[in-house]
Amino acid sequence: MSRVGKKPITIPGGIKISLDKGIIAIEGKQGKLDYKIPDPIKVEVKDNQVIVTTPDDQKRNMSLHGLVRTLISNMIKGVSEGYKKELEIRGVGYKAQIDGAMLKISLGFSHPVEYQIPEGITVEAPKPTILHIKGIDKVKVGAVAAEIRDYCKPEPYKGKGVRYMGEYVRHKAGKTVA
After folding, report:
1. Please, are residues 36 and 85 in contact by the beta-carbon 8 Å criterion?
2. Predicted pLDDT at 62
3. Is residue 164 within 8 Å of 173, Cβ to Cβ?
4. Distance between CA atoms of 84 and 36, rounded to whole angstroms?
5. Quick check: 100 and 115 in contact, CB under 8 A?
6. pLDDT number for residue 58
7. CA 154 to CA 145: how far, in whole Å?
8. What is the pLDDT of residue 2?
9. d(CA 49, CA 47)
10. Are 35 and 70 in contact (CB under 8 A)?
């Protein structure tokens, strides 16, 4: 059995969980998420805990066991607290601004990059060089942050580009040093 999958998930106060025909729906103060549970995995709600079980020890079932338990745990945390990623923009003239549901980022190209902010995600720019990406779905928040970062990854010579807050970018020496 999966070590991760065996751990029961404690349900914090204010969270409602409903199971219906293989779909788990979790509702909290931040919003509502649902997930279709894969076929061999069983989920039960007992004594303010969510318990995930698998029928046997086949490799596929064991990996699904841990995965489903982690996804449900992430959903519970998402609807109660939410998730947040921070991006930092470095470079002369590099900046971001939010225009309704559109994020406009100047990254040294001939025109600003326009990114449509997906539904369920909020993007804030407290400073023109800092972005806060928030939402209840951990996967969606990480995907949006990765997409924005992909427009201009940090380069190793001057460090210009979009990076996660606190990310270390190893600098290389230029040609003149060699």
Report:
1. no
2. 87
3. no
4. 24
5. no
6. 87
7. 14
8. 62
9. 5
10. no
| Domains, the chain | 3-80 (3.90.930.12), 83-164 (3.90.930.12)
Give every residue of the chain whose pLDDT is below 70, as ranges.
Answer: 1-2, 177-178
Chain centroid to Cα 108, Å, comes to 27
Q: Tens digit of pLDDT for each residue in 137-152? A: 999 999 999 999 999 9
**Residue tagged 């990059």 (tokens):** 113
pLDDT at 178: 55
* 83-90 vs 130-135, strand pairing mode: antiparallel
pLDDT of the residue at 61: 87
pTM over 0.70: yes
Structure tokens at 75: 């959903």
